Amino acid sequence: MSSAPRHEVHSSVPGLAAERPVIWPPRTHANLANGLEIVLVESHTIPKFNGDLFFRSGNAAAGVPGLADLTAGVVRTGTAARSSRQIEEDLRRLGADLASSAGTDTSVISFGGLSEFSEELLRLVAELAQQASFPEGEFERERRQMFEALRIDRTTPGFLAGEGIRKILFAGHPYAQVAPTEAQVEGYRREQLAEYYASHYRPGNALLVMAGDFEPRAMLKQVEKIFSAWSGGAAESSPDPALGEIRGRRVRLVNLPGSVQTQILVGNRAITRKHPDWKKLTLANSIYGGAFNSRLVMNIREQKGYTYSPRSGVHPLRQHGYFSIHAAVRNDVAAATLTEIFYELDRMRSVAVGDDELADARNYLSGVFSLGLATQDGLASQIGTVALENLPDDYLETYREKIRDIQAAEVLDAAQKYFDSANAQIVVVGDRAQIESQVSLFGPVEVQDAQGNRI
Amino acid sequence: MTQFSVPIESTALPNGLRVVVSPDRIAPVTTVGVYYNIGFRLEPHGRSGFAHLFEHMMFQGSANAGKMMHIKLINSSGGVLNGSTHHDVTNYYETVPSNALERVLWLEADRMRALKVDDENLRNQRDVVKEEVRVNVLNQPYGGFPWLDMPPVAFRHWPNAHNFYGDFADLDSASLADVQAFFKTYYTPSNAILLMLGDLTPEEGFRLAERYFADIPSGPAPRLADSSELPQTEERRGTVEEKFGTLPAMAIGYRAPRRLTPEWYAAGILDQALHSGRAGRVYRRLVLEQQIAVEADGGMNSLGGDLFDYNGPTLIATRILHKPEYSAEQTLAAFDAVVSEMKEKRIAEEELEQIKVKFRSDYFSMLEGGHGGVPRYGLMHLLACFSLFDNEPGLVNSVLGGFMEVSPEDVESVARQLFVRHNRSIVIRQPAKKGAAL
Question: What is the CATH number of domain B236-431?
Answer without folding.
Answer: 3.30.830.10
